[in-house]
Every structure is written in C-alpha cells, then in structure tokens.
Amino acid sequence: MSKAIQIAAHGGPEALRYVDVDPGTPGKGEVLIRHAAIGLNFIDVYYRTGLYAAPNGLPLIPGGEAAGVVLELGEGVSDLKVGDRVAYAVGLGAYCEQRTIAAEKLVKVPDGVSDEQAAGMMLKGMTAEYLLRRTFKVKPGDTILFHAAAGGVGLILGQWAKHLGATVIGTASSTEKIELAKVHGFDHVINYRDRDFVADVKEITGGKMCDVVYDSVGKDTFPGSLDCLKPFGLFASFGQSSGPIPPFNLALLAQKGSLYATRPTLFVYNAKREALVASAEALFDVVSQGIVKIKINQRFQLKDAGQAHADLEARKTTGTTILLP
C-alpha cells in the first residue's frame, strides 16, 4: 500500500484526507514509480474546491507534477529502465508515495537537475515555456506584463523572458514579493494592492504599453489587463486565482485596440509526445545552464498538504512549493 492525499468531497483544505491506496501493478505501456517530491500548484486548489471538474469524478488524488524513480516496468516499455529518474506534469494523481503512470507521460531528468527542482518546475516551467515560446513568441525588444510575478510560474518566466531580451513588468502584492520578483528577471514590479497597475504600466512604457499580458489572476485584474496592451496586443489568460473572468462582449477587444485574446492550457500544448519532450528539454536546458534558477521556497510533508493549500490560498507562499512523501 501507498499513502496518498484523497479528496472525497469538495471543500476547503480540510477536504484533503491522508489515506492508504493501492498504487497497482503497471499494465501495458505503464511504469510504477516512487515519488521523491511532488509539486504544489493553484490548479490543485481548483480541483479541491470543484472549480475544475475531475474527468472521473470523486474521489480523486490531486496533484499534477512530481519527480521520482522507476520501480517496475509494464509490458512494452522499452525507453525506460528500473532506476531511471523521471518527472512529469499531468492532470491529477501526484499526491501520493507511489503510482502507476503511462510511460509516455514521463521524461527523464538529467543529472544537472535535482528531484526537488524537477518536481517543483515541471508544470510551472513548461507553462512558462509554452507561454514564452509558443503562445506569444517573445523576442528582444518586446515588453510583457506578468501578473503574480512572485508566484511559481512568474519566477521562472521572469528569468526566461529577460534572457530572451524582453522588458519584463510584473505585479505583486507585497514589498517582499516585489523584491523577490526583481531578483528573478523582472525589470519593474508594481504593487497592485497600492497602485493602479494600468497607470504604472503606461508610465513605465512611455505610453507604448505591452505586446502581451500573461494573466493567471483572472477577475481582479480584468479588464485592466486589456488596458495594458498596445493595439494588436495579446491577452493570454491562463488561470483564475482570484475567480473567473466574467463573460464579456468580444466587441470589447475591438474597442481597446483590435486585441487578441486566448485561454491556453499546458495539456493541450503538450498533448503530443514530441511536444512534451521538446518542452521539457527546453526547460531542462535553461535550468542546467543556470539561465533559470529553481529555488524551493517552501517544503511540506505530504500528510500536511492541507496546510500547504491554506498557505497557498492565503498568498503566504512565494515561488516553488513542494510536498515530500
């Protein structure tokens, strides 16, 4: 048996139960892995509260990213071996000590990346990858705005975007988070609690505004995010930590400058095996070179996942948080 966090009914952090589960035996195309570390992400909260519906209903084991070691191979698995260090970013099932998983969802972790780094960066890091390299291909001279700059995706994306030659503007909610973002690639960071971020973006850019706004906050930053874009700019909404964006008339995009808007997800961008591998390799490359540094700012035991969720929702965490089985 393996220990796991399970959700039997939607609710607050108390809905996370520490239980025994059978990880099962790997079937055709699957492997059994033992987790070394598990990533914590806001999407885990969405599944816990019911904002996102789990494909197979309840009960469910939350968690979308982890790293560990291969314990057993199922039939037909030829590109992995027992003892390989692997990592993944999938929809659910990571909050556990052991699990069976399709081998095609796994990527090998290179020697230059630790288990904790891999567990804490797969979902966030590959999200930064597709946002910067595929949703909007950031190039030298671009100006970008990223909300929640001190969050897990923000600290990775800020460093990566700066390396790509962009002017990187962020928002954060405290002095501590502002300083953290500034040492992770952000040129300017606005305290959105005290300041009008639209006015500040206008001042910072000399009225030229931004080529792209990356927004995982949602309700609290809309429609202000649209007002930070130059004509033909792109609004990329990839989360809703403050609540969903209310429905709006598409004519609003015309009124604010013939804007583009998209609602991308990692799992669509990396649905094909070749896209997943390319995304992971790009991430591992910038981390191995030291271009992007992955620092683990919070660690919780797996059994304390409820406290981890509470701290995440209260905005007490910064950057990367992991759970340790």
Chart the SSEs and their pairings:
Blueprint: E1 2-7, E2 16-21, E3 30-39, H1 42-49, E4 65-73, E5 85-89, E6 98-102, E7 107-108, H2 115-135, E8 143-146, H3 152-163, E9 167-172, H4 175-182, E10 188-191, H5 197-204, E11 210-215, H6 224-227, E12 229-237, H7 251-255, E13 260-262, H8 266-269, H9 273-288, E14 296-301, H10 305-313, E15 320-324
Parallel strand pairs: 8-9, 8-11, 9-10, 11-12, 12-13, 14-15
Antiparallel strand pairs: 1-2, 3-4, 3-6, 3-15, 4-5, 5-7
Helix pairs in contact: 2-3, 2-9
Low-confidence stretches: none
Shape: globular
Using the 3D structure, state the CATH architecture of the largest domain: Alpha-Beta Complex
Share of residues in strands:
25-35%
**Secondary structure: number of strands:** 15
CATH 4th-level superfamily of the largest domain? Medium-chain alcohol dehydrogenases, catalytic domain
* CATH topology type of the largest domain: Quinone Oxidoreductase, Chain A, domain 1
Total helices: the number is 10
Could you give a short account of the major beta sheet?
7 strands, mixed
Termini gap:
13 Å
Quickly count the domains. 2
Instruction: Compute the average pLDDT.
Output: 96
SSE ordering: EEEHEEEEHEHEHEHEHEHEHHEHE
**Rg, Å, rounded:** 20 Å
In the CATH scheme, the class of the largest domain would be Alpha Beta
Helix content range = 25-40%
Structure, explained:
It is a single chain. With 325 residues, this protein is α/β, with parallel strands linked by helices. The chain has two domains: 2-122 and 295-324, Alpha-Beta Complex (Quinone Oxidoreductase, Chain A, domain 1), CATH 3.90.180.10; 140-263, NAD(P)-binding Rossmann-like Domain (Rossmann fold). It has helices at residues 42-49, 115-135, 152-163, 175-182, 197-204, 224-227, 251-255, 266-269, 273-288, 305-313; strands at 2-7, 16-21, 30-39, 65-73, 85-89, 98-102, 107-108, 143-146, 167-172, 188-191, 210-215, 229-237, 260-262, 296-301, 320-324. The strands form three sheets. Strands 3, 4, 5, 6, 7, 14 and 15 form a seven-stranded mixed sheet that branches. Strands 10-9-8-11-12-13 form a six-stranded parallel sheet, with helices on both faces. α4 links the parallel β9 and β10. α2 (115-135) packs across α9 (273-288). The longest helix is centred in the middle third of the chain and has 21 residues, at 115-135. The protein is globular. The two termini are 13 Å apart. The model has no long low-confidence stretch (mean pLDDT 96). It comes from Neomesorhizobium albiziae.
